[in-house]
Amino acid sequence: MQFKIAVVPGDGIGPDVTREAIKVMNRIGKVYGHTFEFQTVLAGGAAIDTYDECLPQNTIDVCKASDAVLLGAVGGPKWDALPGNQRPEAALLGLRKSLGLYANIRPAMVFEQLASASPLKPEIIGSGLDIVIVRELTGGIYFGERGEKETELGHAAYDVECYSVGEIRRIAKIAFEMAMKRKKKVASIDKSNVLLSSRLWRKTVTEVAEDYPEVELKHFYVDNASMQLIRDPNQFDVICTTNMFGDILSDEASQITGSIGMLPSASLSDGSFGMYEPVHGSAPDIAGKNLANPIATILSVSMMLRDSFNLVKESKAIENAVSRFLEEGYRTGDIARGEAKKITGTVETGDLITSFIE
Ligand code: NAD
């Protein structure tokens, strides 16, 4: 099969890690008989330096004409003094909006070999962790009506949480579809004991569940969910939630894994199109020094193969190659934790994982 991929390396370690992920994809292409055609475009600080804007129209056009987007990371101290809407990070919101990416998928995984990196006790984390958070990305309070007004107690400001049935249905469907490929459990997170919008959320998710009789649906209030994630994270499989609750819970879940350099993510729209990127930022402190862990980006590519291209075997081959890398005792600096392991740089890590693809 043939696929067109727009590559947005971005800033800092973005180019370092996307380069290694492309290496892995090319190897997958060779072994499994696919052609991946890459077109590199600029966004973030790199685009500001070249075009004087963080998200040129050409970048959007190339992304739209592709089957999927691979993004590194954007931002860095060089551009920190710019006003908010001109900063590199504004390119991310612009891309999500113009590409209609309404579902953010963040797995929180702990590979068995790295279980000791989790800040949770071994008896809680067990032999690993494998949760996926499905967060609504283009609605809710971050995009609702907002304003300021005068009240008896002085000046006030407000942001409105508003969800339509259509918005809830489409994100819930993504969560249930994902659960069907996993352990068939969905936890829907809301605050329906207080919020009217959450009551609509709960009712709509319950209706969508009727189309997935094999999937077990449980509802949690967000305050309870944040406790349960620490108390017993392995009770979760797929977590489905709103924009703001997802923002907070996905950061909490990523900390449970203890290694930000290992976490991939995807932002999906209708159909199979998606943008895939590591959870970490541009890490300017280690950019270009062959120190960045490329595994989060390599695992993002594994998600791309499975979720956008339906190449399940190929996706698994990448996960297995990462597992073998860890099994054989290789570690990038960020996950070595003082253990006597074979420390690898960015390039060597990419080369080894590429060589383990079979
Ligand atoms: P960061 O994730 O870039 O770095 C946090 C720490 O983790 C640093 O010590 C860094 O060296 C380390 N780290 C991150 N990724 C690593 C990897 N792959 N391998 C080894 N170590 C790694 O977060 P930050 O320092 O808060 O932000 C730096 C810049 O990145 C800022 O400009 C921020 O706005 C931007 N940022 C971009 C994105 C994105 O593009 N999606 C996300 C978060 C932050």
Ligand identities = nicotinamide-adenine-dinucleotide
Largest sheet: 10 strands, mixed
How would you describe the shape? Answer: globular
Q: What's the rounded overall pLDDT mean?
A: 95
Percent in helix: 40-55%
**Class of secondary structure makeup:** alpha/beta
Summed up, the helix count is 13
Task: Write up what this structure looks like.
- 41% of the residues lie in helices and 23% in strands.
- It is globular and about 60 Å long.
- Helix 1 (14-32) packs across helix 10 and helix 11 crosses helix 13 (346-355).
- The chain is α/β, with parallel strands linked by helices and 358 residues long.
- The protein is built from 13 helices and 14 strands.
- It binds nicotinamide-adenine-dinucleotide.
- Residues 13, 73-76, 89, 92, 260-261, 277, 280-286, 292-293, 296, 334 line the site of nicotinamide-adenine-dinucleotide.
Feature tags:
single chain; 358 residues; alpha/beta; two-stranded antiparallel ribbon; 13 helices; 14 strands; 23% strand; binds nicotinamide-adenine-dinucleotide
